[in-house]
Amino acid sequence: MKYIRPIFLLLLVFHISGKPDNTGHKLQAVLWPMSPPGAIAQVDDAVYHFMQQYKVPGMSVAITRNGKLVYAKSYGKADIENNVPVSNASLFRIASVSKPITATAILKLAEAKKLNLDDKVFGEGALLGNKYGKQPYSAGIRQITVRHLLQHTAGGWPNNGADPMFSQPELNAAALISWTLDHVPLDTIPGTRYAYSNFGYCILGRVIEQVSGQPYAQYVKTAILQPSGGSTMQIGGNTLAERKPLEVKYYGQLGQDPYCCDVTRMDAHGGWIASATDLARWLVSIDGFDSKPDILSKASIAAMTTPSAANPNYALGWLVNAYHNWWHSGSLPGTASEVIRASNGFNWVMLCNTRTDKGFFNDLDALIWKAVSDKQTPWPAEDLF
């Protein structure tokens, strides 16, 4: 069928010894009820089945159609131990769904003539100049452009067991960039090979700061999120004690600690927390449909969704396919997320407070497609935003 899309396992899976989750609570399958009266069974039944199969404590889903919010519903528990349900206001870590948000910010700066996508990033006269690490830079590092970073074609620092973003935990983002430039050489010539890179998007966060003159999160909120109507999104904390108001609790599976990572340092590649509805607002604001004005120009949206020569399925912060669908997933211990923009006028957001393997992400990816492809699904006519 047209909507079936290639799936890429983009994100590092951690295997960390320890308790089933940070509290010692062992996740169990739950027998969920069928959809109550007034709900949309095509969505709810699929979500309940997915949650039962993969022992998901809580989920939040938002679906838009032609610019209107037609479904927003939350399921299960935000906090099992304190019996707190997930609500539509609940905030979840979105992990690598942060990347298309960062890409949106870069394109907004390009529209303002503050940078060009083909500007060099490092070296004399480049956007970040000689600010990080020791000089002289290698010839390869001096060739890296903003576009290379957006496309994951910078030539190195991939998301593998040596991913810089999960090393040197004592360093802040700036110090980590200097350390990586000094100690981790590129593997290939920039622009020639795709290698998914969290670190590349960390660099893009610093580009945004340098060019805008504002902290990364502040620029994104001012230029991207506020114009789209998103008011609660923010950079998350690292520990359970640093959980933000309305933020869910995360539950590890496979022996993973959901509070093992420096999420704050991940800002531009994996640090945002959001409600499903606020993410849907942002998605509607850049989806390229004519139903509502976008915050990016048509030319910027075309650039954002044009893949590189190195990978025909990855553009600027988005996975794309020949059917004009765009999407991105996110994954950290205790976290799973995905946003999808489909060519049939639907967008949707799915957020979970756990993750596992053996089909989890394939099934999450497929979860809403049947409902949005079924002409009998009873979507409301009014806008629920």
From TrEMBL:
Its EC number is 3.1.1.103. It is an enzyme of class 3 (hydrolase). Residues 43-371 form the Beta-lactamase-related domain. The keyword DNA-binding does not apply. Pfam families: Beta-lactamase. It comes from the Bacteria. Gene3D superfamilies: DD-peptidase/beta-lactamase superfamily (3.40.710.10). Keywords: Hydrolase. GO terms for molecular function: hydrolase activity. This is Serine hydrolase domain-containing protein. It comes from Chitinophaga defluvii. The lineage of its organism: Bacteria, Pseudomonadati, Bacteroidota, Chitinophagia, Chitinophagales.
